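Each field is set out as follows.
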Amino acid sequence: MAGPNAITFNATMTACQRGNCWHEALRLIAVMARDKQKADTITCSAAVSACENSGEWEKSLRIFSVMTQSFVETNVNTFNAVASACEKGGEWEEAVRLFSTMARSRVKSDTITFSASISACERDG
C-alpha cells in the first residue's frame, strides 16, 4: 500500500488551516520532511494560514522564510496570510518588510495586501 502523497498532504494541511490547527500543521510539515515529501505552495500557504488564523505570526514568518530558502514558490495568498499574521500581531515593521519583499519578488499585491500592511502600521499608532 502506498503512503500519503502531495495531494493527501495538501488536503490534510487545508483541513488544518480551516480548523486553525497550527500545531498539527507544523507537525504535518515535519512528517512530510521525514517522509521525503516536498512541500509545495499549497502546503506551505495553508500552514502559514493555519498559524495566521491562530495568531501565531512568528510561526507564519518562519514558514514563509523556510519557503523562500527552499525555493518553494510564493504567491499573493502566501504573502497576504503572512501580512495578516503580522497585522494581528502588531508587527508593522515585519509587515512593511514583507511588502517590500513582495515587490522584489514580483508578486502582484492586491487589496488584502495593502489593507493588512496599512492596518499593521495603524495598530502601532
About this structure: The radius of gyration is 14 Å.
